[in-house]
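Have a close read of this protein, sequence plus structure tokens, and explain what the tokens say about the fold. Thanks in advance:
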Amino acid sequence: MKKIFLVLLMLLNLQAKSFFSNDDQKEASKYLMAVKDLIVAAQKTRGATYSYANGNENAMMLVYMFRDDMNSAIRTMESLPLSKNPIIGARTTTISSAFVKLNSKALKMKPNEAFDAYTENIAQTLLLAQSVSQIGSEKMSPFGKKVTSIMMETILPLSEWMGQLRAIGSAACAKGGATKKDKIKMQILMSKIAKLDQELQIKMSSAIKDNPSNFSPDVKERLANAHKAISHYLSITKKEVMKDKTNYNPDDYFALATDTIDSVIALFDIGHAAINEDAKGWF
């Protein structure tokens, strides 16, 4: 009777775990983490550069610190097995070269030109993330594919819209007010952020419901906290920053935005851990 119970227990959990361990799934998830780290570091570099170019001299030290984080992420990407894939390897080399070139001249460029150049390079990195999601997840379990899709197609784009808002908002604070163009850009970004936040809540809740054992015990709380942080971030932006004149400290706004983005990126890390848990399998 005991043996029958154990067999039934295993069968009930087959949806949550692969029957055999999946080393390919683990390797893909490692690469996804490195791509995420590059995107986050590039977003911070863009924001600090734009803030500095608009008069916030305190941002200079952050620029160089975030550039170091970018270089570290690129080195990690290049060291992983998935970089040997012809498509991924070629795109990584192109993106790496573009960021190195941009970093060498960004502080001498006009603020908007530097912002646009970083945004274009980040967009290319997001396309790389899409390639990793498609190629790297070929041998993943259905659960791994579902969570990878959330990480790459919802969480990373959400962090990018928030990163752009952080850069424009902190620059507005540094200038002492938002221009009409700034306000339009911020309003568009806020709408995109609110929409993707709702999408994240729905998709992540579905993944948790289907495979709760793969996630950390506090995942629902972390998901709710991310939503609260985003709502607060958008509220502060609307009430304190989208104004002709503002006294809001640019460093405080940058920190608020970064903390909010970190709460979303934490869900990326939770997804990564869940994929690794699923990849353990039964044998």
Summary: Residues 3-21 have pLDDT under 50 and may be disordered. DSSP finds nine helices and no strands in the chain. The chain has one domain: 22-279.
